[in-house]
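In full, the data:

***
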Amino acid sequence: MARTKTPRTTLPAGVARVLKRLHCPLEVILLCVRWYVAYSVSLRDLEEMMVERSFEVDHSSVHRWVIKLVPLFKKAFRKHKRPVGKSWRMDETYVKVRGQWKYLYRAVDKAGNTVDFLLRAHRDKAAARRYFEKAIGQNGAPETVTMDKSGANLAALQALNAERETPIKVRQVKYLNNIFEQDHRAIKRRIRPMMGFKDFRCARIILSGIETMHMIRKGQMKADGIARAAAEQF
């Protein structure tokens, strides 16, 4: 495997500290983490792929790297995320955790850029409100939110509007537009090989890695004047 030298000193401080405790070549760790959140491969697929490249990496080690590093990568990405538009399309999709359906709340702007995401155990007004609070806290308030006919989502946004001087306009349509449905599918396609998550915390972390890589691929990371591929940005 061709190795790309990546000095630890160029990484965010939190990432560099964690990597010091992981006994494996840096490029292998970063490659495994990126491939796992970017492509439809399982942990055992990655184990086999690394063997083909003359690295003996146990699938449990890859999982441990993902859980340790993804929250740090997500935090670093937030500092470089491009602003999103003021017209949002919001919905939730289903994710299986320990055999039970959980709910991944998501929104994109009208250009298809991811606004934010949040995994919740329940699909109700409290979960929807928590999502809106997080999304607005990270991205600022939208002018318009388009959602389906969900009463819980509407009630959550109405409760927030009651506390705002300038209310957010709500549009309810039975089916959201194609941009949002395609974006949902991109996330679900990556989740499918995992055949469900075993733990809510791990699900939350792994999904945040998938969403972060998805945003990088969509060009949502601020450029430094140099055109870089998604792999280089990661």
